[in-house]
Design brief:
This protein has four domains: 20-136 and 233-282 and 476-523, Rossmann fold; 143-226, no CATH class; 286-465, no CATH class; 530-743, Rossmann fold (3-Layer(aba) Sandwich), CATH 3.40.50.300. The protein is 51% helix and 12% strand. Bound molecules: iron/sulfur cluster (SF4).
């Protein structure tokens, strides 16, 4: 059977039966808010199941009712619920009940692995007991985490040819193939070793190359098996990364059944203060020298495979003569065109790399430089790269045209023997298209992409220079509307830190929800007695952060005194990794000499460092932004949080800078309406590490005097729950801090 016959048959069974709710609209069964809230009442099913230790929280009742109403009323809800309220169960219970009553699955997205683990290992099993019915759930992983059997066949067919991507790749490819023979779930996490990105790239299932039902392995495909499992689940647990990448895949493919998740319908997003960041990352268009090389190497492998197939002469019947012709020609047609793209793109990216190096203040990498349209128009520092763009564009268009021609014949006339080649060519075609579109957008200096900010990043990976070009959305609202809001029936956005200055306005503006008529909002107060449990230390005579040796030395001394006052048990948060390293290296001998173990981010994996910190009980942990959240250490082991600097975004970061400018241009005060709110939410996250239970006690020391000296400092102080405050000269504050820790 050739491909055109298959296509006709396939058309009769589309749309995908895996996610039937995509096409079937059913009647709704409403939930009673009273009934759902009653589960959490004293003597209710949650207490009966939980047993001793369950605490009734009045605040939780309003939260549960609000969430229940959002499911019943097809509405959106912004919910701020602090730690200790029982937020997770408050949304999981109505979500599960809704799924069981209505047969509509609910997607639950978290930002951190901690919360995901808690939901899967603790909350969902508890939920099944509370509801008296098994709640089916699935932990969804991205498509690329699964082995593609079709691609695996292709690699097997290539061996023992040398791998163009890596000298020692053949052994690794063999190890993956061995595992592929035995694996039961085909997930990369099941492999027992971590494959290099280069090698896994050749085996991973991916949307662009998947030929779905045309694939000879469709029935045993690991990815589609996982999707079938997801299709049976009531609750699908994902992380924000997967949620937004899946939304992007569906959008690019133009199909709601693309990607791993069902079409978004009922969605709960916890840790929703990260939505803007996750959405920005996944709606960013990006290409790089490494990405182009990868696509071209892939095409080289396809051409070689096609030549082998032609040589082995797969039943060269007359009907297949065009197929044979194309397969034979690929080794002649592609290589010279690949060479042209290689040469042109190498020169283009090298030029970007050189311009980046000249612009880097201290020759360092690991950051992005914004590219202004007028620099492109005037031929400024990126002028050379822009002048090389036509060659890149022409060579890519030429190559892409040839790939399209080959695809047209093989896709319609090829048979089972060429299905793998078709899959690879589709991915290559999509890849060239993507690289070309981003480079074209970059080189266009006419602001044709008015809602995008352009940036260049460069560096070295495995001793190889690389440069990349990104185009990130300045305003994510239109994309969220089109790809998420317009497709959602219920959307719950919840976090312990969504509000700024008592309101949700900042989030609503950032996420494009201000004028959304379906949105409701609720903030419930903390159940903890912060006045009794927490102390806020605000020394007012320390220097404001600056990149000088004097500052890092003063800061180091202040940290040392604070950590001595608490006798360890301290999480010290920095806004810069360089400063963290400087201070931790300087303080480690003294602190260790005092019997306080020093743990520094980067010394060991995050989960391990947190476990060691918790087990020690009196250690000090130096971390950056990533430790501001997902650190849930109750009790004495974390009794002091030191915030070394107010967590403002880096002013030169391209997306932040472009958003500030856009706000200014609209006549608003960008600093107070954007920079401060972002920093306040970060600050609230950092503060939230301290009090995790009703019995915790401790202090937060802010070693950035801008909090007391600058007019905006009050926003930070007012954004956290009221607690005892120490304000004054550093020596006095530390003396009082010591007394506080001596007393608890
Ligand atoms: S169905 Fe798609 S992902 Fe699965 S083995 Fe085939 S091509 Fe690969």
């Amino acid at each position: 059977m050739d491909r055109s016959e298959k296509n006709r048959l396939i058309a009769t069974v589309e749309p995908d039966e895996v996610f039937p709710e995509a096409v079937i609209a059913g009647e709704k069964t409403f939930m009673s808010p009273d009934e759902i809230a009653s589960y959490f009442l004293p003597g209710g099913m949650v207490e009966k199941t939980f047993g001793e230790g369950y605490e009734f929280r009045k605040q939780q009742q309003s939260l549960v009712r609000e969430i229940t109403s959002a499911f019943n009323g097809d509405s959106f809800s912004l919910l701020e619920a602090p730690t200790g309220i029982g937020k997770t169960l408050s949304y999981l219970l109505p979500a599960a009940k809704w799924a069981l009553l209505n047969g509509e699955k609910v997607i639950v997205s978290t930002n951190t692995i901690n919360l995901q683990d808690q939901i899967i290992s603790k909350d969902i099993p508890l939920l099944s007991k509370v509801l008296g019915r098994k709640v089916e759930f699935a932990l969804a992983k991205g498509m690329r985490n699964y082995l593609c059997l079709l691609r695996s066949d292709e690699v097997k067919g290539e061996l023992p040819l040398p791998d163009p991507d890596a000298e020692d790749g053949v052994d690794e490819a063999r190890a993956i193939l061995d595992w592929a023979e035995k694996t039961e779930d085909g997930s990369v996490f099941d492999m027992g070793f971590t494959p290099s990105e280069q090698q896994w790239d050749r085996f991973a299932a991916e949307s662009e190359s998947c030929v779905r039902r045309e694939c000879p392995h469709y029935n045993e495909c690991f990815f589609f098996k996982a999707r079938r499992k997801i299709a049976k689940a009531d609750l699908i647990v994902v992380n924000h990364h997967l949620l937004f990448s899946d939304i992007s895949i569906k959008h690019s493919a133009g199909r709601d059944d693309a990607g791993v998740l069902p079409p978004v319908g009922r969605v709960v997003i916890d840790e929703a203060h990260n939505v803007a960041g996750s959405a920005t990352m996944h709606f960013t268009l990006k290409t790089s020298s490494l990405g182009v090389t990868k696509t071209l190497n892939r095409l080289k492998r396809v051409a070689a495979r096609a030549a082998r197939l032609a040589k082995n002469n797969i039943r060269a019947a007359d009907a297949r003569s065009r197929v044979m012709e194309i397969l034979s020609a690929m080794q002649k047609v592609f290589p010279p065109r690949i060479k042209k793209v290689e040469t042109a793109s190498k020169r283009f990216f090298e030029s970007l790399y050189n311009s980046f190096e000249e612009s880097s203040p201290d020759g360092s990498y690991g950051f992005s430089i914004r590219v202004m349209d007028d620099e492109i128009e005037s031929g400024g520092r990126w002028g050379k790269a822009v002048s090389l763009y036509p060659q890149v564009s022409e060579s890519m268009a030429d190559l892409s045209g040839e790939v399209r021609k080959a695809l047209a014949v093989l896709d319609s006339e090829g048979g089972d023997e060429t299905v793998g080649i078709v899959a690879e060519l589709k991915a290559v075609f999509a890849g060239i298209d993507r690289h070309s579109a981003v480079i074209r957008g970059f080189a266009a200096g006419d602001s044709s992409q008015v809602n995008f900010v352009k940036s260049v990043e460069a560096g070295k990976r495995n001793r190889r220079k690389f440069a990349s070009v990104s185009m990130s959305p300045i305003d994510i609202a239109p994309y969220l509307k089109e790809r998420l809001y317009d497709r959602c029936k219920t959307l719950i956005l919840t976090s312990a830190t969504l509000r700024e200055k008592d309101g949700f306005e900042f989030q609503k503006n950032s996420l494009g929800l201000r004028d959304n008529e379906r949105i409701t909002e609720l903030a419930v107060p903390s159940p903890f007695d912060h006045k009794r449990q927490a102390l806020l230390a605000l020394p007012d005579d320390l220097p404001a952060p600056e990149a000088t040796d004097v500052y890092s030395e003063r800061l180091g001394r202040a940290i040392y005194d604070c950590v001595r006052a608490s006798r360890g048990g301290a999480l010290v948060l920095f806004t810069s990794y360089r400063l963290l390293k400087e201070v931790s290296v300087a303080l480690a001998p003294e602190l260790e000499g005092d019997g306080i173990r020093v743990l520094t981010q980067g010394d060991m994996p995050r989960e391990k460092i947190l476990a060691e910190f918790k087990a020690d009980g009196n250690a000090v942990l130096f971390g950056t932004d990533s430790f501001r959240e997902g650190v849930d250490i109750a009790g004495d082991a974390l009794r002091l949080v030191v915030i070394t600097g107010l967590p403002f975004s880096v002013p030169a970061e391209p997306v932040f800078q472009a958003r500030m400018e856009a706000i200014k241009q609209s006549g608003k005060d960008a600093f107070n309406q954007y920079a401060v709110p972002v920093a306040v939410i970060n600050f609230r996250q950092a503060f939230g590490r301290l009090i995790r239970t009703a019995t915790d006690r401790g202090a937060v020391a802010v070693l950035d005097s801008r909090i007391t000296r600058k007019h905006y400092g009050r926003h930070f102080i007012n954004s956290i729950p009221q607690c005892g405050t120490l304000e004054g000269h550093f020596e006095t504050v530390v003396r009082e801090l010591k007394k506080f820790f001596d007393s608890i």
